[in-house]
């Protein structure tokens, strides 16, 4: 069963990529990431000027598929591969000449948060919220979380990573993550309006603006992403990751050790 749908309008040169696994909260798992990566690459090969990243259902994404992680023969190897593939998607979105627009409704949790933030323009319905939550299950962040420092600042990002706080749509707007907050019922039409504005603009100027601004923020994001992958892989191979994931699935409080 496909977890992604994608369409392309060659006249407008607009690609629309939708996370389409609402029964699982658009959880991020290897098959979804593979489909997402192929959709992004296909859009780039087609010469898309705008890529829209959206979702179906109540949530943008609940984050990583913890059941799939727990069922893996080697959770560390599973997460290493998954993080590398997801980070390639994040890098492709950020390196693309296309302007990437994310339309977020409901929660963007775990890796769903930095995936939405990989867009150049983030639009949010009033129901949207953003949270990390990795440390609650004994894992360290991935998906491009470290790149949030450039948008949210050091200590706000640390607060989100360490305390598991949640940003609602208005807080995300005030923090600079979200470009516009609209009623949920208007999210699709407002996204279409932003896409039309971009599609009517100067493509080379937009692509150059995206590149120079992103390079100023982080000229080598892939190095940061690889460091994140190493971190979550190490956690997944240790006792905290095993306990945190098991506790979450058992719906009990985790019991962590004293650390090093």
UniProtKB/TrEMBL annotation:
Gene3D superfamilies: 2-enoyl-CoA Hydratase, Chain A, domain 1. Signal peptide: none annotated. InterPro entries: ClpP/crotonase-like_dom_sf (IPR029045), Enoyl-CoA_hydra/iso (IPR001753), Enoyl-CoA_Hydratase/Isomerase (IPR051683). It holds the Pfam family ECH_1. SUPFAM superfamilies: ClpP/crotonase (SSF52096). This is Enoyl-CoA hydratase/isomerase family protein. Belongs to the enoyl-CoA hydratase/isomerase family.
